Amino acid sequence: ELSPEHITEIYDSFHIEDDRTGLSSETLQRAIADNLYYIQGKFPEIATLYDYYMAVAYTVRDRLLHRWINTVKTYREQDVKVVCYLSAEYLPGPHLENNLVNLGIYDQVQQAVESSGLDLRSILAQEEEPGLGNGGLGRLAACYMDSLATLEIPAIGYGIRYEYGIFDQEIREGWQVEITDKWLRLGNPWEIPRPENAVEVKFGGYTEPYTDDQGDYRVRWIPHQVVNGIPYDTPISGYRVNTTSTMRLWKAEAPESFDFQAFNVGDYYGAVDAKIISENLTKVLYPNDEPIQGKQLRLEQQYFFVSCSLQNLLKIHLLRGDPIETFHEKFVIQLNDTHPAIGVAELMRLLVDEYLLHWQKAWDITQQAFAYTNHTLLPEALETWPLNLFGSLLPRHLEIIYEINQRFLDQVRLKYLGNPDKLARLSLIEEGGSKRIRMAHLACVGSHAINGVAALHTELLKEGVLKDFYDLWPHKFTNITNGVTPRRWMVLINPRLTQLITREIGETWITQLEDFKRLESLAEDPAFRQEWRRVKRAVKQDLADYIQAHQGLTLNPDSIFDIQAKRIHEYKRQHLNVLHIITLYNRIKHNPRLAVPPRTFIFGGKAAPGYQMAKLIIKLITSVGEVVNHDPDICDLIKVVFLPDFNVTNSQRIYPAADLSEQISTAGKEASGTGNMKFSMNGALTIGTLDGANIEIREAVEADNFFLFGHTSEDIVDLKAQGYVPKTFYNTNPALKEAIDLIASGYFSHGNRALFQPLVDQLLQADPYCLLADYQSYIDCQDQVGQAFQDQDTWTKTAILNVARIGRFSSDRAIREYCREIWWVNPVSIHLEEYQQAKA
Ligand code: B1N
Question: How far apart (Å, rounded) are the C-alpha atoms in residues 490 and 365?
């Protein structure tokens, strides 16, 4: 530890230049030139656009660092309670523009780069986004980091620094092709490696008992392998506040000593192998939006980042001078699904084995520290690990889980005497055949709070997958409906609408989205509606221009932009959307003079590389597009576009341009959805089922302003209980039959009847997601949409009301609820100390 005098001496030896903190466009321009020269080692004659991007990024980072250091200092000194968000995935999107918005220096930086003869938009376009997640769950973590910083809540987001994020998607001959995402290739200006804070993570080996000095029974874990975790920190700015939080991502490396060990016995190549094995750990994100059962590397990734993070937290706690026993008073740890649920056993191991606490004390701390968010009801998505695999990788954790389970079941047994079924259902171990560890059960038992992510989802959790836990501990359950940040999903992506809205109601909505309700009365103002329409039309034109430039397709900006953008999955039913397209197509073919409003169907989304049916759905969309887009009989009334590589960056052009948002999952399957909120916020109307957060969005905007169709989740359960026969719908509905038959006939596949056979068979034989049962209701509803769009003025009014009433779906609201109901944390404001003050 350094003495205060020594610290003052260090401060005296350097000082912070104004060029690193100043916010005027002149200072920024100078700083950018300086960074180009001294960081990129370039001068204008040879600098690439990417060099300029790096120079601007470092310039903005300097401004962040000042706030970040003050944030870290404040939390150190004030002994505040900190939220630790544990997530295997983060999808923050490009950082630069978001930081410009949050720091309030967009215009100044624009002026600075323009004065140097450059264009800010093309500089921003240089950034490679960190695709460290699959979809909604990873993006939610990023929205929550934004809101935590904006609300000035002390927080750290822990995760994995994958070297390869989610693959880039290309479409070749209508099929998805996966390209590896080398996002770090040109360097990452937003991260700071902290090798001095490396931690060790153990794997494999065995355990042995021993007796400690007090004569207490203890267990030692002798691992087979040790891996180092190196933290890489990324500053996360809040909107117009000084608070700048940390996203700390861990990279796996081989420990040097381990190399030397092998080296000493002469096994140089063995040492190199061990190094490669260690570094494989954080090499790649699993591109699956549901868990991959039984993949050892995935369990290694989970344990690796969780162990690194918990060790780091305990170290921070002790460094602040606090006793280990008060850990849960200073930190609350949120589990983003079960991916980090091993943390429950790891904290117990650290407290009991390393810090020598008694079991019960350690358990109290653990339960009070952890909280668990469930994100899915799909039974195949509930994580379990084969006991053998688990035990060979984490032998000590297996023992700890057995102990937790035994004590838990002892308690349960008293409550449910003579009910062995109940015990078997609650157990952390799934018996029968081969034994497995149920990670959701571990998360439930080890947490003081359990939440679902939308009202329906939480209710279904309570009566379904987690029913036995709900019966046992009803007080642990809460709903926290998801939200999205209006900074990225409105201010950043839709400057035109932002300006129009702000001109009318001021800018308080940016941090209090409920203030959107002031737009209600403006929905009645014809002049305002006209301006609104003009904005929407301009934004649609932007997307049309982009698609023209990238795909050579000409779109009609006055057509309905009908958009479904999300991961491709059977339960999300992109193929139901396709059945509607084919139905419209057939109608026009039968009656060429039919008056239908022109529509542009836009799709975007990635399929998991191993999910054949999802990949076939992509091929179906592109194949239908190929036929429909070029059929002269259609007279450009229908266009079908598949936008490749749906990621945060590309999504930002999509949400603002939508007239219609497709949220058509089978009721009871989508936990929440968050794209639904982004579309609505940008003035799209929704066509949707009573699923996930759609239900609450419909309640908020009111039924008249939402296109509802389909069976409810209860209907779906009943339908299946009665023995659902999809063929009946096919046989009794001519339009449906015609659409499916057309696919089966090879019409969209150059006569190849085999191509879509698996998809057709799945629909006719099983149809687990009930497309056929919802088909007619969907078509009728789409016909209403078509009708409604003819009356542009009423449509616009409805769109304005959607925006006016969407305020509840801000991630700020969600984070306030987590703070109040689960975390028990308060805001801490950050004051920027001038350097001179910092000395005192
Ligand atoms: O989490 C989102 C929800 O809005 C979506 O409805 C939900 O589908 C999504 C395993 C998942 N649930 N589960 C995952 C992701 C990666 C993985 O390896 C599961 N993603 C969701 C936010 O609450």
Answer: 40
Q: How many CB atoms lie within 10 A of CB 19?
A: 14
Catalytic residue among 674, 686, 689, 798: 674
The interface predicted TM-score of the complex, written ipTM, equals 0.99
Q: What is the 136 CA–ligand 1 centroid distance (Å)?
A: 6
Q: What is the mean pLDDT of residues 225-247?
A: 98
Cα distance between residue 393 and residue 643, in whole Å: 42
Using CB distances shorter than 6 Å, the residues near ligand 1 are 134, 136-137, 140, 288-291, 337, 375-376, 381, 453, 482, 670-674, 692
What's the CA-to-centroid distance between 761 and ligand 1, angstroms? 28
**Active-site residue among 375, 606, 619, 669?**
375
pLDDT tens-digit readout, 718-739 = 999 999 999 999 999 999 999 9
Decide: helix, strand or coil at residue 385: strand
Q: Ligand 1 pocket check: which of 376, 480, 572, 809 to mutate, most ligand atoms within 8 Å of Cβ?
A: 376
Q: What are the tens digits of pLDDT across the range 29-50?
A: 999 999 999 999 999 999 999 9
The answer to whether 205 touches 228, Cβ cutoff 8 Å, is no
Of residues 688, 481, 706, the one with CA closest to residue 566: 688
Closest ligand 1 atom to the C-alpha of 140?
A: 22
3-state secondary structure of 742: helix
Contact 179, 170 (CB under 8 A): yes
Annotated active-site residue 567? The verdict is yes
Q: Which of 257-271, 360-374, 438-452 has the lowest mean pLDDT?
A: 257-271
pLDDT for 568 equals 98
- Is-catalytic flag, 211? no
Query: In the numeric block, which tokens belong to residue 436?
Result: 């497995």
Q: Count of CB atoms within 10 A of residue 319's CB?
A: 10
Rounded Cα distance between 344 and 370, Å, is: 7
Phi first, then psi: give them for residue 424, nearest 5 degrees: -65, -35
Residues contacting 446, CB < 8 A, separation 6+:
341, 343, 344, 345, 366, 367, 370, 372, 404
The residue type at 284: V
| 375 in active site | yes
Distance CA 561, CA 489 (A): 18
pLDDT at 355: 96
The catalytic residue among 397, 567, 669, 805 is 567
Write the residue with the smallest CA distance to atom 16 of ligand 1.
Answer: 289
pLDDT of 449-471, one tens digit each? 999 999 999 999 999 999 999 99
User: Which of 158, 152, 94 is closest to 128 using CA atoms?
Assistant: 94
Domains and CATH numbers, the chain: 1-78+95-128 (no CATH), 79-94+129-482 (3.40.50.2000), 543-800 (3.40.50.2000)
**pLDDT higher than threshold 50 for residue 367:** yes
From the list 602, 598, 600, the residue with the least C-alpha distance to 574 is: 602
Q: What is the pLDDT of residue 839?
A: 39
32-37: long-range contacts, CB 8 A cutoff, minimum separation 24: 32/56, 32/59, 32/112, 32/113, 32/116, 33/116, 35/59
Report yes or no: 767 and 503 within 8 Å, Cβ to Cβ.
no
Catalytic residue among 339, 678, 711, 813: 678
CA atoms within 13 A on the CB side of 633: 13
Q: What is the pLDDT of residues 749-784, one digit of tens each?
A: 999 999 999 999 999 999 999 999 999 999 999 999
Residue 338's CB is within 10 A of a number of other CB atoms, namely 26
How many Å lie between the centroid of ligand 1 and the Cα of residue 548? 33
Judge contact between 800 and 522, C-beta under 8 A. Answer: yes
Question: To the nearest 10°, the Cα dihedral for 603, 609, 611, 613?
Answer: 50
Minimal-distance CA residue to ligand 1 atom 22? 137
pLDDT tens profile 510-530: 999 999 999 999 999 999 999
